[in-house]
Amino acid sequence: TALQPQPLLKRQNRGAAAAHRTQCPSVSVPRTSPARRDYLVVAVLCYANLINFMDWSIVPGILLDIQKYFWLGDGDTGLLQTVFTLCYMLAAPIFGFLGDRYNRKLILAAGILFWSGATLGSSFLSEVYYRIFILSRGLVGIGTASYSTIAPTIIADLFEEGKRTIVLSIFYIFIPVGSGLGYVLAAGMAEITGDWHWAFRVTPCMGGLALVLLILLVPHRTQRRTAAHRALSISGTRRVAEEKPGVHGTAKTTWCQDVISLAKNWSFVWSSLGVTAIAFVTGALGTWVPVFLYRAQIVQGIVPPCLQKSCSSSNSLIFGGITMGTGILGVIAGAEVARRLRKINNKADPLICATSMFISALCLFAALMVAQTNILATFIFVAFGELFLSVNWAVVTDILLYVVTPRRQSTAIALQILVSHLLGDAGSPYLIGIIANAIQARNVPSFQWSFWSMQYSLVICVFVGVFGGGFFLLTSFYVEEDRQEAER
């Protein structure tokens, strides 16, 4: 429903009563409180987000089994997540363009159907089809991109700024929860069935249910609900225009114009580089931490080398539990701290992200240093490192949503996905594996050097985390100005 200003009074009567009548023209505005249906839509989107990231983490959860099944080195093993992420990030701008202009519900449904089918198909491949297995992971990444790009903009349409942060926090809680469940699901199915292929046959069934719920409950169109869109100018020189379905704002622009405008938005630029650092660290840790812990346990003599068909999955199960717990706590804590600090500091969001990145880098460095002597302390430091990384999930998205105008938000999210994954987790698992291979090649093959090679290569994540904190500090210098510009 379009908001249309009432005709302004042509003559202003004298006196207090006339002045009172002309202060603000009477208009009919849509409801401001979300309906029950809106919360059902969010529930469906959160469920699909859960499955989305469960599928993302299946491969790291059974990485030892896959590495042994296909006879892969560390470099080729890291390539699995790299191909997935590359396809994911390259498809994101396409879906961002489509999401700003066409029916988002149909795009979401097609994406869920696509990645569910690709995941199910990959579960029937034998060891001679390694390249096809890599290709299937790339196809899953393409389907996943449609959802991650468009779903947050639907939530932004349904809720105003005060409630939007809370709802986005709930939505992003399912990133670490889904990732953790992915580890647990993969390791559990491999242990129960004795065949890691079964890990790829659960999420497609869950995706089918998500597809049905999406079709039944998510509306075809949503309209942005913000105070700025309801405000009417007293002077009559500015009017609230009717928004066309699927397009935010009053004028259409080309994709290149949107990109140029976003490139001039320094808050968006620096925060996107900060998100890139988060993605780099998260991608590397998610892929290699279970393997790193396994090699540390071998060096300490806690577990024997894996010579069986199915390797031990205890590290993946524990790491999955840590990811879930710290993710929930971190997202909730980040949203609550941001809500409180915004009242006293307009730069609170980027400062929270910067602080959490610095602390996370310190915890990860401590985890790497104590791994050879104390596994329990390693798990504790890894948990704190992931906790402070998770603080940023909802906060960085909220930064994007209030420094970018509504009609460019899908494009902005898509560009942020492209940049953060291109320079982040698209290459970090492969880079860590390549460095580990290079270190092992220069030394006598042994379990000790297998552990040290992974330890030395993972130190890169500590430096990247520090750089990420610096990028968020730079964001704080521009966030107030860019926010005001977006509101105008």
Q: What average pLDDT do the residues reach?
A: 79
Number of helices: 20
Name of the level-1 CATH class of the largest domain: Mainly Alpha
Estimate the strand proportion.
under 5%
Low-pLDDT windows of residues:
1-33, 225-250
Q: Distance between the terminal alpha carbons, to the nearest Å?
A: 22 Å
- The CATH topology label of the largest domain is Growth Hormone, Chain: A
Q: Using only CA atoms, what is the Rg?
A: 24 Å
Estimate percent helicity. Answer: over 70%
What coarse outline follows from CA principal-axis ratios?
A: globular
CATH architecture verdict of the largest domain: Up-down Bundle
Main sheet overview: none
Number of domains: 2
Membrane topology: Multi-pass membrane protein
Family: Belongs to the major facilitator superfamily. Spinster (TC 2.A.1.49) family.
Pfam families: MFS_1 (PF07690)
InterPro entries: MFS, MFS_dom, MFS_spinster-like, MFS_trans_sf
